Amino acid sequence: MYGPRGPAIDRNSQMTVPAPSDASVPDGTATESGDSSRITPELLKLAGVIMLGAIMVQLDATMVNVAIDTLRQSFDVTVSTIQWVSTGYLLAMAIVIPLTGWAVDRFGARATWTFSLCAFLGGSVLCGIAWSAESLIAFRVLQGLGGGMILPLAQAILAVAAGPQRLGRMMSAIGVPAMLGPVLGPVLGGVLVDQLSWRWIFYINVPICLVALALSWRIMPAGDPETAERKGLDKLGLLLLSPGCAAVVYGLSEAGQHGSFTAREVLIPLVAGVVLLAAFAWHSLWTSTEPIIDLRLLRSRNFSASSGVLFVFGMAMFGAIFLTSLLYQQVHGDSAMRAGLLLAPQGLGLAVALLLAGPLTDKVGPRWIAVTGLVLAAAGTIPFCLARGDVNQLILGGALVVRGAGLGAILVPCMAAAYSGLANQAFTRASSALRIFQQLGGSFGVAVIAVILQRRVTDAYTGAAGHPTLDQVAGAYGDTFWWAVAFTVAAIVPALLLPRTLRSDAADESAPRPAAMG
Questions:
Q1: Is residue 26 a contact partner of residue 177, using CB atoms and an 8 Å limit?
Q2: Same domain? 326 vs 267
Q3: How confident is the model at residue 455 (pLDDT cuts 50, 70, 90)?
Q4: What CATH number corresponds to the domain at position 353?
Q5: What is the pLDDT of residues 289-326, one digit of tens each?
Q6: Which residues have C-beta within 8 Å of that of residue 392, sequence separation ≥ 6?
Q7: 294 in any annotated domain
């Protein structure tokens, strides 16, 4: 939902946004007007097409959050089961991100863009006709495979087409979906669920996808994949990372079902997942080819600190968003539409913070902006920890504004710090890795929060002989929100390792050199 938007953040360090090879350049758009700072009509049309695809992905993610409780009731499943609707989507998005550059090199930008939109379109249609929780989860994975490519591909295509003199203005266009999605998505999703059906939060993507496909074939030049420098796909890394992450998350969700981490159904997938992830780490560190996630980048202190913040922050952010929607509907009895409206203040706070975070990071430095953002996010979550059934909604609305401002203030300084000190040739791999760390953190966070929530609610029902009061159920949610606060506070530790100021000189000696990449 609020993923990194690429490396054009640190204006002091005069970085350039990495792009795929020449195959991804929209022919004519960059070459004809790349030396001019004028925004041409052709470039505006291309930006419009790209924004259409990007905002569709952002809206979909936020709309589904509002529908989680409705989906749980429709399929008569537990929270730890229905959380896979979000978790499977996030995992799929994370895994497919590093495949984007390889696909562009091999097939060209427009073909890859078309495939991504078609995968998202097909997944949306299938989600709309899903007949069970299991089928919906499977189709959400397909949707995530398409959506995961759209955002990094949108950034790369627009960066190359804009050229250095127009880069800042065009990159701001990519930030528009990030600001509109959290505000409009919950409201639109709530209206669709209440007035039509939960299926329409997926069907609404169909006309948008079709328009985006038609316009992209008219406006986006095909490119020539034959001229690209072909890069090999890290198949072994993909085979280790994908099932490893899925196994760990599955083990966590099974812990919610069995109420214990020692059950065989929990331990087997958890241990298998950890072994696969350990094997992937060894492979990434020692392979002579370019790995799917280059863990050697972690040799840079700035990058490793940023990665740590984004991973733990992803756990807190996605977990809290998942939990907040359920709180409004299950505890306060709000409809999906009202829940969407009540969630909108968080999007407003996020949008304002995104606008201010860049200039403040340049002026103050990334460390204290990120720490301030984490403190605000934690402070904005605490009222939900203390809330009971009769809480004033104005208090929670104000808390959401604060939390949203904190969330928005974290991303920009972390991204800027991550690229500070890295060699320019490492930017593409760094951008993919940062997105993946945040998405994986989000998937783990949702799974952990769902497990804790189900356990707390079960305890509330057991302790009250099956008839808990509203305050007891609200207390179970409050206990779970404390975990989101704990994740947020934990992210302060790596945030304190972020640089005080952004570097604009030579690359950090601790950063991996291109020669070391094999």
A1: no
A2: no
A3: confident
A4: 1.20.1250.20
A5: 777 777 888 888 888 888 899 888 888 888 888 888 88
A6: none
A7: no
The pTM score is 0.73
Q: What is the pLDDT of residues 383-424, one digit of tens each?
A: 988 887 777 788 888 999 999 889 888 887 887 787 776 766
* Residue from 330, 54, 338, 322 nearest 177 by CA: 54
Q: Is there a single domain that holds both residue 193 and residue 105?
A: yes
Rounded Cα distance between 293 and 236, Å, is 12
* Best CA proximity match to 310, nearest among 223, 397, 413, 218: 413
The total number of structural domains in the chain stands at 2
Same domain, 269 and 331: no
Give the residue from 3, 200, 233 showing the smallest Cα distance to 107: 233
Residues 179 and 47 in one domain: yes
DSSP state of 328: I
| Of 100, 89, 39, 80, nearest in space to 60 by CA | 89
What is the C-alpha separation between 125 and 332, in angstroms, rounded?
32
pLDDT in tens, 467-488: 677 778 888 888 899 999 999 9
Residue type, 203: Y
Domain match, 144 and 273 both: no
**3-state class (DSSP) for residue 507:** coil
Indicate whether 168 and 271 sit together in one domain.
no
Predicted pLDDT at 512:
39
CA Rg value for the chain: 22
Kindly report, residue by residue over 198-238, the tens digit of the pLDDT: 999 999 999 988 988 888 888 776 655 444 455 667 788 88
**Is 186 a member of any domain?**
yes
State pLDDT tens for residues 326-348: 888 888 777 878 888 888 888 88
Q: Which residues contact 369 (CB under 8 A, 6 or more apart)?
A: 357, 360, 361, 409, 412, 413
- Residue-wise pLDDT tens digits, 32-54: 444 456 667 777 777 778 878 87
Orientation angle between helical segments 41-75 and 109-128, nearest 10 degrees = 30
Joined together, the tokens standing for residue 384 give 């939900």
**pLDDT number for residue 176:** 60
75: in domain: yes
The closest alpha carbon to 440, from 93, 159, 183, belongs to 93
pLDDT for the residue numbered 427? 66
Whether residue 216 is found in the same domain as residue 273: no
> Does residue 516 lie within any of the structural domains?
no
Cα separation, 48 vs 41, in Å, equals: 10
Q: How many angstroms separate the Cα of 484 from the Cα of each of 165, 284, 328, 380, 430?
A: 42, 30, 17, 11, 27
CB burial of residue 235 (10 Å; 0-12, 13-18, 19+): exposed
Range of the domain at 247: 237-252+263-277
- 27 and 157 inside one domain: yes
